[in-house]
Amino acid sequence: xxxxxxxxxxxxxxxxxxxxxxxxxxxxxxxxxxxxxxxxxxxxxxxxxxxxxxxxxxxxxxxxxxxxxxxxxxxxxxxxxxxxxxxxxxxxxxxxxxxxxxxxxxxxxxxxxxxxxxxxxxxxxxxxxxxxxxxxxxxxxxxxxxxxxxxxxxxxxxxxxxxxxxxxxxxxxxxxxxxxxxxxxxxxxxxxxxxxxxxxxxxxxxxxxxxxxxxxxxxxxxxxxxxxxxxxxxxxxxxxxxxxxxxxxxxxxxxxxxxxxxxxxxxxxxxxxxxxxxxxxxxxxxxxxxxxxxxxxxxxxxxxxxxxxxxxxxxxxxxxxxxxxxxxxxxxxxxxxxxxxxxxxxxxxxxxxxxxxxxxxxxxxxxxxxxxxxxxxxxxxxxxxxxxxxx
Length: 391
What we know:
Structural class: mainly alpha
Number of helices: 20
């Protein structure tokens, strides 16, 4: 998913692509995800998570390796889009695995650990893709990614166990959480807004460091990787904080307020052309911009319940990746017209707009009937069984 973003400097300087064109290529995997996320989530709800994840990763490997033989940028974009569509299986289904196996008192922490995979993947790409592209063209990072996805497909087929499913009455099975309240719709909308700063930084942060602040490619890659690594740890910390606070939405509001502040601070460092302070604030802004994903993801799954969690998480990611697909070309065009600092300031509007949309309370707190689907919320059973299996 991250490879095209970190090919932008190479494609821009060596192949002559404009930032808008390179940004469109970087958006192709997320566009592929948008098309397939809900379908993968429905498949996970119906058939279980294990083979959905493993099969999707196998498809990711095949299409990524086919992208190596692409004869032009358009063909490569098509293959990367198909790879992103296949990779959506893990986005839609792994969240259901976490929600299914962990009680609510530990779910925020567990989902934070699950969510750290994305910034760690971005960190790995930041460290390796620019160097590999410089030595082996675009084929190098694509081959490594394809082989890795194939290995992980086998590992998931062997190692994942579907969460236990409990028998539920017909009334509940037919219950649609999207019709019961506006909570899920609001969480989806907030997540869509909060993803805009995240992808603005992940796509153009490296380019800003190298082309404007005049960092060399290797140290700039280290800065991006460090930001993503700290961001991964931050997701765990924020998830644990939401467990301790007893509220996902309260912590989500704190993250949104912080997002406005750090993006404006980043814009200020850009206007002043501060090199080292700019890099440090970029790290801080990256950490804040990725902090919301885990708690919003967990909140959506809790509100949806086990029979709808796959579809709800698929819808959650669909909205996020719709925005992410637009961020590449839109931010690239905006940067071309008004520069990086103004683009960073513009990105601060997204978390600002999200604040009134964040629900006042969690559904498990505000509405007792919303707790009924979450059979895993009863705590640990003395028999040693999972709560779902004990029931």
